From TrEMBL:
Keywords: ATP-binding, Nucleotide-binding
Name listed for the protein in its UniProt record: ATP-grasp domain-containing protein
Keyword Iron: no
Sequence ranges assigned to domain ATP-grasp in this UniProt record: 117-302
Highest taxon of the lineage: Bacteria
Organism: Leucobacter luti
Statement: the UniProt record of this protein carries the keyword Phosphoprotein: no
InterPro entries assigned to the protein according to its UniProt record, in alphabetical order: ATP-grasp
Lineage: Bacteria, Bacillati, Actinomycetota, Actinomycetes, Micrococcales
GO molecular function, a single term: ATP binding
Length: 403
């Protein structure tokens, strides 16, 4: 395999690069800025810089085509929302290259939280009561229905932009700051007590070949995880396969789901149609066999396996010492870092470059840094330049399928 791994700024992209490169595969990393940490791994054959898929779509596709041709790439592995731009422009990619991802319509249906709720309901997977709102008036009416509520845009990610009156994020966002529209609606649900359970899956030809179910005992600003603990996968594997069967029995790619566990039942919350940090908990051989589709039974991460992003845990301990210092010290002393045994520390030294990139994208505005860090590689449901008529129709169909 000669692979191109995109959005190399992500810790999970770095992990995929390490797993592929350490096995002798030819790996090229790329991102929209040279300082992306995955682009500095010792397991790379080369690294490249591309235009932004969101802001310069045509040039991004041209850059990917150039890299594929120059490095004789046979597999493109997206790790963030550049996957939508690639899937919508798959007809422009060089002949013979494999995009390890589903079709645009399937990915859009998973990403749109409204159509995702309808999909999982049809698959027989439990979901919370859900109201889709398309105006500020409808938002006020919906949150008035629930004494404790939880609301977010159908296109949102990373625990950013959440409206709630319950829990540690209560009051962090004002109703006045929320502006649902027909094109960019919001979901409102009753606040569901219980821990968040996440999954990471590799799917080949409609079959789950690897599954990791995990929790995040420590989170940065109550949003994105910085420590990861493997949990039992029995129920999540069943639910993941049900969703795939309902979506597309021939689906291939990487998917990540979020569930909340309430009174012993798992409720599906959202899907990230891409990898997440759960991949870090998979052993290299398990990942490679699952990726190649050669496994007879899915590779399952055993409960109890734990990893941390040590630099983030350390930063969190100083940012909120009263709340996190004791737990952070325990993790720093006892939990293995994501770079354990990789001897690839130079790559992680580039981690702060992603923060600087996010600050640059924020243009001095007061917005969440986590949001800004991915602003040039996200997709928020807009038509993509150069997409086919069939994919444009699929996007309209996704909108019609919102619950």
């Amino acid at each position: 395999m000669r692979a191109l791994v995109l959005s190399s700024r992500n810790t999970f992209a770095l992990d995929i690069i390490r797993k592929l490169g350490s096995s002798g595969r030819y790996v090229v990393a790329a991102d929209t800025f040279a300082g992306a940490m995955g682009s500095h791994s010792r397991f790379l054959a080369a690294h490249e810089v591309t235009a932004s898929p969101r802001f310069e779509t045509d040039q991004f596709i041209a850059d990917v085509c150039r890299i594929v041709t120059e490095h004789n790439i046979d597999t493109i592995i997206p790790t963030f929302e550049e996957v939508f731009y690639l899937a919508a422009r798959a007809h422009d990619l060089p002949a013979g290259v494999r995009l390890f991802a589903g079709g645009f319509g399937e990915l859009a249906r998973l990403h749109d939280k409204g159509s995702f709720q309808r999909l999982v309901e049809q698959a027989g997977v439990p979901i919370p009561e859900t109201v889709v709102v398309s105006s500020e008036d409808e938002l006020h009416e919906a949150i008035a229905r629930f004494p404790r509520f939880f609301a977010r845009a159908v296109f949102s990610r990373g625990g950013v932009g959440l409206l709630t009156n319950t829990g540690p994020l209560a009051g962090k966002m004002s109703v006045a700051d929320c502006h649902p529209t027909a094109d960019q609606p919001w979901l409102v649900q009753p606040f569901t007590d219980g821990p968040m359970i996440c999954t990471y899956s590799i799917i080949v030809d409609g079959r789950v070949t690897a599954q990791c179910t995990y929790s995040a005992p420590e989170q940065w600003a109550h949003s994105t995880g910085i420590t990861f603990l493997a949990e039992d996968s029995t129920q999540t594997l069943e639910y993941t396969q049900r969703i795939i069967d309902e979506l597309d029995p021939s689906f291939t790619g990487q998917l990540s789901f979020d569930f909340v566990k309430h009174e012993g039942e798992l409720y599906a919350i959202e899907c990230n149609p891409r990898p997440t940090n759960g991949v870090i908990l998979l052993e290299t051989a398990e990942f490679l066999d699952a990726f190649d589709g050669t496994v007879i039974e899915p590779a399952i991460v055993a409960p109890g396996v734990e990893r941390q992003i040590r630099l983030a845990v350390l930063a969190d301990a100083f940012a909120e010492p009263v709340q996190h210092l004791k737990t952070s010290l325990h993790d720093l002393l006892h939990v293995k870092d994501i770079g354990h045994q990789w001897h690839d520390s130079f790559a992680m030294m580039w981690g702060p470059a992603a923060l600087l990139h996010g600050a640059k994208l924020a243009h001095g505005e007061r917005q969440e840094l986590l949001k800004a860090m991915g602003e040039d590689i996200v997709w928020n449901g807009e038509p993509i330049p150069g997409m086919t008529d069939a994919d444009a129709a699929a996007l309209l169909d996704v909108h019609a399928q919102r619950i």
